[in-house]
Amino acid sequence: MIEAVLFDLDGTVANTNELIYESFKRMFKEMMNLEVPDEVIYGFFGEPLQYSLSKYADDTKEMMAAFRAFNESNHDHMIKSFDGVKEALEMLKNANIKLGIVTSKREHMAKRSLGVLGLLDYFDVIVTPECTKEHKPNAEPLLKACELLGGINPKNTLMVGDSVFDIKCGNNAGATSVAVSYTVIDPLVIKEAEPDYYIDDLRELIELIRTLNEKSTKAV
Questions:
Q1: How far apart are alpha carbons 203 and 91 in whole angstroms?
Q2: Does domain 17-78 bear CATH number 1.10.150?
Q3: Catalytic residue among 8, 10, 162, 166
Q4: For the domain 4-15+81-219, what is the CATH code?
Q5: 117-145 residue pLDDT tens
Q6: For the segment 55-114, what is each residue's pLDDT rounded down to a tens digit?
Q7: E strand or H helix at 153, and its extent?
Q8: Sheet arrangement for strand 157-161
Q9: What pTM was estimated for this model as a whole?
Q10: Active-site annotation holds for 8
């Protein structure tokens, strides 16, 4: 039985695609005079920033500072909500489903994003890189969320995301992985991560959960 839904934040719940893209583009241009292809930048989405930048330099402190300077100063006016997100969260709450965020974004920025969008109070737990030693695609962030939710079995959770890192995190933890179709990442790349399900809109989750729980009941 599905008891909880865990969401990635950027690109899944919060539309920060343009903000993150511009943060990378400007940082690479200003710091290294590099024009990095779009598909490469989109491939960084969902990965901890330091991991992404370590592919270009051993010491990433100045690059991270440049990225964050643009990102944080432009965050509040560039972040947007995807259609149906608040409605989906309300539907899930009304169905007594526990909700969590599992993100590679730092805690204060994750809470800032959710606060700007008016979504912070919907979530029972927020797992950020500060919470775990390992990060997505490792299973540890999802397992930590399950622990904080009272010891929910990962098999009774959905992991919903827009990147390979989200899907692999869910799969590695034994959760049911759900990919959103509105990702900016190449669909073929997402497919290779082998999500269990695809959805076009977060409001579809309530019907998916109903179907999965009916199958679970019949199996018993």
A1: 8
A2: yes
A3: 8
A4: 3.40.50.1000
A5: 999 999 999 999 999 999 999 999 999 99
A6: 999 999 999 999 999 999 999 999 999 999 999 999 999 999 999 999 999 999 999 999
A7: none
A8: 125-127, 98-102, 4-7, 157-161, 176-180, 197-199
A9: 0.94
A10: yes
